[in-house]
Amino acid sequence: MPVHLSNSEVDMLVDPAGLLEDVESVLRDQGVVAPARLSLEHSGSWLGVMPSAGQGFYAVKVVGVYPGNPERGLPLVRGRLLLVDAGTGDLLLEADAEAPTGWRTAAATALALRLLGGTRGVLGVIGAGVQAEYHLRLLTHVYRYSRVLVYSRTRSRAEELAARYGGEAVGHEELLRSADTVVAATTARSPVVLGRLLRSGAVVASVGAPRPVRELDRGTLQRARCVLVDTREGVLSESSDVDEELVEIVELREALRGKNCPAGEIRVYKSVGTAVLDLAIALHLYRRLARRDS
């Protein structure tokens, strides 16, 4: 029988350092594949299906956006993550999608920051939602920052999130001027990372959702010679944050295999999500369960 995991059970099961190793292993594996996701709309809602395969397994994430749910007391976004044995078709694992998505996105960011030199100094996080929470949870575990700053348009949310990670809530401009590493995890429709305010040598990770979300301004790109991305196709087709005419683009998988992303005055990583990472977190959870139960 497959194991069923709630979001809270996923949170208890994940080993942040081990997850980084598993995500890196999957990203380095040239046999891991993930076709373009299938999406459709019906009755005012949106559904996406994201398959991937590798290392003897299939992973499939099915996630939907249901605008009427908040009025019903239900989550706006709901989804499930499945892990299937590619040899037998056995369903091995089924989990709520929110926590696995948060963990795997933050783990990919952590790998990018390691490559770009964003693992020390002052960490600044823009946003106070689910992705901001998971990034703080993972990054403060695997790296040692001297200070943690949080900015949100809702001051009380920034204060609550910062307090959980020994940080402080600050203003938008103060964060951009002070942080050595900036993580933007928002649903903003106009840029929240302003290149003119960033300190020289700053590292930026933008993990905002696809259009109409927009987090990086033109000045940020102009100061970066290259942008590291989770997938070239995904970022260029789904996001307005990266302009090929302004910067070179290198995928995270390519960088982990040795391709150089030339440094400018600042360094930038942009992600919109890839099913390859869903396979990585599903395998991590499955292996953690096997070790726990052995």
Topology readout:
Blueprint: E1 3-5, H1 7-13, H2 16-28, E2 38-42, E3 45-54, E4 57-65, H3 69-72, E5 77-85, E6 91-96, H4 98-116, E7 122-126, H5 130-142, E8 147-151, H6 155-164, E9 168-169, H7 172-178, E10 181-184, E11 203-206, H8 218-223, E12 226-229, H9 232-238, E13 248-251, H10 252-256, E14 267-270, H11 275-293
Parallel strand pairs: 1-6, 7-8, 7-10, 8-9, 10-11, 11-14, 12-13, 12-14
Antiparallel strand pairs: 2-3, 3-4, 4-5, 5-6
What does this structure look like?
This protein has about 290 residues and is α/β, with parallel strands linked by helices. It has two domains: about 5-100 and about 275-294, ornithine cyclodeaminase, domain 1 (2-Layer Sandwich); about 100-275, NAD(P)-binding Rossmann-like Domain (Rossmann fold, 3-Layer(aba) Sandwich), CATH 3.40.50. The protein has eleven helices and 14 strands. The strands form two sheets. An eight-stranded parallel sheet has the order 9-8-7-10-11-14-12-13, with helices on both faces. The two termini are about 15 Å apart.
Outline of the structure:
This is Ornithine cyclodeaminase family protein. InterPro entries: NAD(P)-bd_dom_sf, ODC_Mu_crystall, ODC_N. Helix content is 37%, strand content 25%.
